[in-house]
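2.7 Reproducibility. Because tokenized structures are sensitive to small changes in the input, we list the exact sequence used for LRAT domain-containing protein, including any N-terminal residues retained from the expression construct. No trimming or masking was applied before prediction.
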Amino acid sequence: MDFQQQVEDIIANAQFGDLIEFSYPVGFSHWGVYDGDGHVIHFAVADEGDVMKRFRGCLQTVFPLCGDLLLGDTKIRRQPLAEINVPDGAHILISNNRHTFKPSEEPIMRLRRNLLLEKELPYNLFKLNCEHFATFIRYGKAVCNQIPGKTKNKEQEEATETFQKLVS
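Resulting structure tokens (single pass, no recycling of outputs):
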């Protein structure tokens, strides 16, 4: 299934609060939360000027799978699913079954989303990343199953605390 077909499949089947996984060919994933109307909320590139955009473009040419991560600044954004920057060969999935927690009720997820939208945060692969954000919205607990050597489905208390302070 090509990228556009995957996007259409997600839009046709996803519900608000579903975890959307952008599975990259190198074995890690970018995560977001489905927000309805074909949109996802996720850790995205922070606001930047022309010079920084050119620099990021150069980085992505050399490191196509992680150029965004190398600069370290993110902004929680709502974007159309089809416009999220992913490498060739990425697969988009609804991945609600990768974590063992019970989802929060929709009004609580919406409140977290509303309070975190447009916040700028430093990106840290081990301590504050896109999967931490997405699972916090859905479960109220920041979890990342991609970190080597970390117990799967274990709440990352520091990340949870960071998000909790922003929504309190």
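The chain has one domain: 3-167.
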